Structure formats: C-alpha cells, structure tokens
Amino acid sequence: MTVHPMLRALKRHKAGVALIVLQVALTLAIVCNAVFLIAQRIERLQRPTGVAEDGLVRISQTWLDAPDADTPAGVEKLDAMQRADLEALRRLPGVIDVAASDSMPLQGAVWSGDLRLTATQKAASGQAALYYGDDHLLRVFGLQLVAGRNFAPTEIGHQTIRGTGFPSVCIVSRAVAERLFPEGSALGRTIFLNLHPVTIVGIVARLQTPTLAEWGRDWAYDSIVLPVRLDGATASYALRVQPGQEQAVIHAARAVLFALDPLREMPETWGTQTMREIRFKAYRGDRGTVVVLGIVCLILLVVTAAGIVGLTSFWVGQRHRQIGIRRALGARQVDILRYFQGENLAMAAGGVLLGSVLAVALNLWLMTHGAIPRLPSIYLLAGAGALLAIGQVAAYVPARRASRVPPVVATRSA
Amino acid sequence: MRHFPYYLQLAWRSLWRSPGLTMLMVVTIGFGVGACMTTWSVFQAASGDPIPDKSARLFVPQMDIWRSAARSADGEPLDALTYTDAVALMRDHRAVRQSAVYPIAPSVFPDRAGQHPATVGGYAVSGEFFPMVDMPFLYGQGWNAADDAAAAPVVVLGRALNDKVFGGVNSVGRSLDIGGRDYRVVGVVDDWNPQPAFYDVFDTGGYTHEGPALFMPFTRAIAANLANGRTACDLEPSAPGFPGLQQSDCAWITYLAELDTPAQVQAYRVYLDAYAAAQRRAGRFLGPPNNRLRDLPAFLDAERVVPGDTRVSFLVALGLLLVCLINTVGLLLAKFLRRSGEIGVRRALGAARSAIYAQFIIESAMVGLAGGAFGLLLTGLGVLGIGAVLQPRLAALARLDGRLLLATLAVAVLCTVLAGLYPSFRAARVQPAWQLKSD
C-alpha cells in the first residue's frame, strides 16, 4: 500500500479531516491534563495520616453551662468536668484507651505555631500544627515513636488555649525534626515554639496536620504534640476502641456523657465521629473532582470515538463505488481494510501532534493558575497511544464494512 | 418564512431516515450540554456576586500590621484586623457606613417549655451593618448608634431562630435569654445567607451552610465576653483570655465599609495610609503602610474564595462541549452531503440557495432541540447527583431552577445551529447539474 493516494484522497475531504484532527487534538489535550489532575488527587487522598485509623473515634462537645474560662476557678472547674468525662469514657466496654485530644488529622480546625531554633531568631524556621493532649494520646492515635519517649503523667498540664502557661516538653513528628535539624540530632534539643522554649523528648514517624487547606500544604506533616489538656467550653476526646466496636462505643458514650451532664451540645454530625467518617468528609471535595473529571473524560473519549465512526462511515458510503472498482482491479479485502485504517492513523497522528502542543499549552496555563504542576511526558505518551488505539478501533467498524464491498459494485451504475 | 412548516416536515422525515446518526448527534449534544450545565451551575453559584446591587460600593480595608510582605510570598496583608485597629476605624467613622464583624456562638435558653438550650452561630456587628448590606427585615429594624455606644443588650434574630424560639410571630420587644442574660429583640430578618459569605471570609472561608442565627451589637458582644472564632497571631497574646486577645496584635475581626463615590474611596485610602503611618510612628506597625482597600468583587477574587476545582471542572466540561460541537459539525456534514442528490433535485426544480440553507439550519435546530431535551435530563441528574460527590456546602448552591433548564435548552439549540452553519453552507453550494448528471 502506498501512502500517496491516501493523502491525495484526504486532501479532497479537507473539512472532514480537519474536524477529526481537531477533535483528536482537543481530546488529547484535555484528557492528558484531566487524568494527570485525577492522578494527583488520588495520590493526595491516599496519603497516610500516621494514625491507626481503624478503631479511632473522636468525641467533641460543648458545655452550654460552662463556667467562665477567664477566671482561675472556672479553668479548674472546666478541667474537673473534662477529667470526669475522660474517666466515664474509659470505663465503657469496648474502649481500649481514651485521651484528651483537641484535634485530629484531617479534622479541619488547627492551632499552629512558629518554629525557631533560638529565641532571638527573626524569621521563623517554619510552622507546625499543635496537637494538645495527654499521656494517652500516642497510644490512642497509634503513633509510631521512633526516638525518645512518651510524656510522663506528671508532665501533663492543663490550661485554656489563651492561657499564659506553656509546657516545657514536646513530641515532634519526624518532618519537624528533619526540618529543624537536618543533621538528625533533634532528640533532647530545645526549640522555640511561638518564642517559648520546649525540649523535644520524643519523635514520632508521621503525624499529618488537621488541615488540608491550601495554606497548610507546605507543612502537611509538621506536627507537634504538647502535654496539655486544653480547657474550654468545648472539650474533645480521642478513643481507641476494639475493632468493629466504633458504633457501639459511640452509642454508649453519648448515653454516659449526657447522663453525666445533660446541658451539653454534642450533635451526631460533629460531636461523635469515627476517623473513617472524618477522612470521608475531609476528602469529599477531592473525591468529587475525581468523579466529575473522570466522567467528563470518559464521555470525551466516547464522543471522539463515535465521531470517528460517524465520519468514516460516511466516507465509506461515499466511496462505495470506488471501493468496488479497486476490488475489481485486484485489491484484496485486507487492502481496503488497511486503506481506511491507514487513513485514520494519518489523521489521528496529525491530531496527536497538534494535541501534544495544545496539551502542553493547557498545562502551562493551568500551572500559572496554580491548579497542577508540570505534566510528566508519560501522560502525554500514554494519552497519544490511547487516542491512536481508539482511532484504530473506531475506524475498524466502518473499514470492515468497506472491505466487504463486493467487486461487482463497479459494474453497477451507482 | 412561508415554507417553515414544510421545512419542519422535511427535517423531521430526514432525521428519521438515518436514526442511528441522528441518535448519535442527539446523545453527543446531550452529554456535552449536560456536563457543561451541571458544572456551570456549581461554578456560577460559587462565584456569583453575593450582593450585586451593592458590591461595588462595599469595601474591605486590610492593613499589614505584622509586615506579612516579609512573611508570605505574595505580600498580601491579612484579611482581618486586630481589635485595636477595628475599634479605631469604627471610632474615626470615616466611611458612609461601617461595621466591625466577628462571629459569636452564644448559648440561647428559650423560654418555651420543652425546648433545649443550644449554641447558635451569630455575628457581632454595628447597627450600620444592616442598611449597609440591605438586610431584609421581616419585623422591626436594627439598633441605633446609641445602642452601639451603650453596648445595649439588644438582638436581631434570623428567621429560623425566631421560628424556633418564638414560633415565627413578631417577637419585637420580647426578651430572650442569651448566655444567661436577657436581650431585647429589636428586629427579625428574613432568611439571609448570601454566598460567598462576603461579610466574613476570614472565618467561613467563603461558604456557609446556614445564615447567621442572630446579630448583636459588637460592643455588647465584647462586654459580654463572647469569644470569637478563628484567630491569626504572629505572637501570642501576653495576657490570658478573651480580654488578652483584645489587647494583642492578633487579627480576628472582619471589617466592612460602604464608600459611595470614587472620591470617598480615595479619601479612605489616604486615611488608612495615614493611620498605618501613625501606628508605625507609635511603634506598633512594622514597615511602611501596606494597605488594601478592595471592593467586594476584587476582594473575593484576591482571597481566591471560589474553589479552584469548580473552575477546572467547568473548563474541562466546556472543552467537552467544544469537542461535542466539532463532532456534531462532522456528523451534520456527513448527513447533509449524503443527500446531495436530493439537494440537486430541489435546486434543479427551482429552490433557491437560501431555501436549502434554511431547511438545513432548521434541521440542525431540531437536532439541537432533541439534544437539549436529552441534556436537560442529564443536567437534572447531574445537579441532583453532584451532592453525592461535592462538599455539601457547595453542592447545596447548585439548584435546578427554571433559569438553568431554559439556559440548557438555549445553549443546546444555539450550539447546534452554530455547528450546522458550515454543513448547511456546503449543502447549499451543491451544484444541481453535477448531481443530476452523476446520479
């Protein structure tokens, strides 16, 4: 088969060819970038938090009759209320351990602090999310201690978030340790957290911050655990429960807490949730983007394939007689098949070339808008391959019909 | 168009002659339009102007108290003020209307038997807030400047809270126990939940599920020690508690100012710069003034309130629509040129080019109408289904209303007619003699 007559034929259908080339090009440009975006999102929502998520429950509640947190007596009263809650929760069947815990990974609300190596350092070396909790927190979260030790019960203090005291020890995530001490000597060092000196007594392998927001992206795993029961009208607890017992424990916990003090607000939406629910809610937007883009990409590919089938069918119909003549002159069925497949390959190749340029342009534009990083060429190659394959499959249906045109057609007048 | 019914009939018959091709076009357009309108409804709702009549006259002053230019890459000052600065701006009262705004979550203890106390989300504002944002009052009105000055225990209820606590009656003059103290109801406002929540982007991030349940004077909320929501600090407050926060350089108050003329805007800019310079001399602000005074649309844009994903999804869907249209052009071209013989006969029998043209445009429009109907179905499913995949707060914004449905149909027909222009032009150019000879 020679290419020359095929190209000559294509020249006679400029409009149709242009349409297919354009369609393939746009599809490639959009699908490449969309699939890259989808891959990024999937990678993001599969990131580990560092906590053992199965069997972890968060309880958060607000006392409606809370004493004034700005008086020392009020703070003591709030702490007593919190300790009473913790005790009651610890006695529930199915509960392995309970910790005072103001926050959890992916949960949203975050306290953060500036990190400095010296008290006089001007610009901060970074920032980290602050997890306030007691000596049970590491065990309840299921964090992996890679160096140092857990807090001792005597180190646990209590204060309001706007209290003036500050703990003297902390446990940091490995990300913080490596950011501040790249040479690897973080344990036992004193750092300045919001200008307060604190000594690192332990390092955990991984602990994601509670926020997924854009502004927290650069320090997504920079977390610091402080030995403080946070006092306030709102108090939150983390529960480690027997696997599979989450709902039973939540049910029992609601009953026992309301029995202890009915004047509290603890709605089922944010008051009592499993870590699984917290993860589900946190990544809702990312998952939605994946689903929407996935559906649109699928439709895009199907539409492009359908368009190729439609136009190729039309050309086959239009050239019915010529095909008959070629067959009569000795062309085999496979020659006709190859002719149409080749024609499609030429058009799809043109589309892929144009599409690659468009894909890179679209990627650059999206990059300036901060939506995605640079498109790895593997996506472009895979996309190009996929579109060429789709073109061949789509052209096969009408091409086979063309190959079955009997030579006798040549002798009939149209 | 005297032949209009005839063309309709021709088009109808022609569409049924090749049902496969017709179906393909209808489905293609349906998918393209459906995906586009679904994502558009979300994007449009998320990026809409929350207060179109007034947004150009409402401004958000921002001041760079910590010299965040040295801290953040874009050099943007914070989107909230410290207590000291908010109170100073209120006291100077340089705008036509102004209000410091911060969210409060007090406990409400209803009088009615059988109702449990609950914390409700509300806002501490000044009396000028209500006319400034064109608040729709059901009963009564906002409080006055004297109430602001006296930190009076007055409250404006949202419709939902008034329904719950007072059974929806005119409750103006009644009293309500908020945080253990009686407040006098001075007004009840209708459901008010503009999106994006322009009055407090700092706390809400832009979108709220429900509107504020109540409003009380800023001065009253401070006096009642009702603490705020989000706080942004460079250095921790040196004194404890909410009073300590008020003395600190932490930012937690949103500020809105109404400026009606360009001259007023310019004067306010000058005022802000002078204020920042004076604060610097007093040793509070670092560096030269780095202020912003943007109107609402510019402010919401600078804050990147609209989630980037809704924009990207919409753009991708728009790309899909474009590909669907190119596809439709191709299919219409095939469909029309296949009938070159028929066109030749009609032309030979005296039909004008314009007649051929009209006939095929009408045929395109019919395809578009059918595609639009299918797209309507898909848009309906899409908008209902988007709640399953998007954040509920955003998905709730996308509504299936008459305007969206009408727009879907219009877009489908318009796009298909546009797609049909070139194929119709080609069809109308068919040479009658040539066709008659060759057939």
Please sum up the structure shown.
Chain A has 414 residues and is of the alpha+beta class.
Topology overview:
The complex is a heterodimer of chains A (414) and B (439).
Chain A: H1 3-11, H2 14-45, E1 56-63, H3 72-90, E2 95-100, E3 111-116, E4 126-133, H4 137-141, E5 145-148, E6 157-160, E7 169-173, H5 174-180, E8 190-193, E9 196-204, E10 223-231, E11 234-241, H6 246-260, E12 264-265, E13 272-274, H7 275-282, H8 284-318, H9 320-328, H10 333-368, H11 377-403
Parallel strand pairs in A: 4-10, 6-10, 7-9
Antiparallel strand pairs in A: 1-11, 1-12, 1-13, 2-11, 3-4, 3-8, 5-9, 7-10, 8-9
Helix pairs in contact in A: 1-10, 2-8, 2-10, 2-11, 3-6, 8-11, 10-11
Chain B: H1 4-17, H2 19-47, E1 58-62, E2 81-82, H3 83-92, E3 97-104, E4 107-109, E5 118-119, E6 122-125, H4 129-132, E7 137-140, H5 145-150, E8 154-158, H6 159-166, E9 175-178, E10 181-189, H7 201-204, E11 214-217, H8 218-223, H9 241-247, E12 251-258, H10 262-281, E13 292-295, H11 296-302, H12 308-337, H13 340-348, H14 353-389, H15 392-395, H16 402-428, H17 432-438
Parallel strand pairs in B: 6-11, 8-10
Antiparallel strand pairs in B: 1-12, 1-13, 2-12, 3-6, 3-12, 4-5, 4-9, 7-10, 8-11, 9-10
Helix pairs in contact in B: 1-14, 2-12, 2-14, 2-16, 12-16, 13-17, 14-16
Structural notes for this entry:
The complex is a heterodimer of chains A (414) and B (439). By secondary structure, chain A is of the alpha+beta class. Chain A is 49% helix and 18% strand. Chain A contains eleven helices and 13 strands. A six-stranded mixed barrel of chain A has the order 3-4-10-7-9-8. In chain A, helix 1 crosses helix 10 (333-368), helix 2 (14-45) packs antiparallel against helix 8 (284-318) and helix 2 (14-45) packs across helix 11 (377-403). Chain A is elongated and about 105 Å long. The mean pLDDT of chain A is 90. With 439 residues, chain B is an alpha+beta fold. Chain B has two domains: 4-49 and 307-438, no CATH class; 64-290, no CATH class. Helices cover 52% and strands 14% of the residues of chain B. In chain B, strands 1, 2, 3, 4, 5, 6, 7, 8, 9, 10, 11, 12 and 13 form a 13-stranded mixed beta sheet that branches. In chain B, helix 2 (19-47) packs across helix 14 (353-389), helix 12 packs parallel to helix 16 and helix 13 (340-348) crosses helix 17 (432-438). Chain B is elongated and about 100 Å long. Chains A and B meet through helix 2 and helix 8 of A and helix 2, strand 5, helix 9 and helix 12 of B.
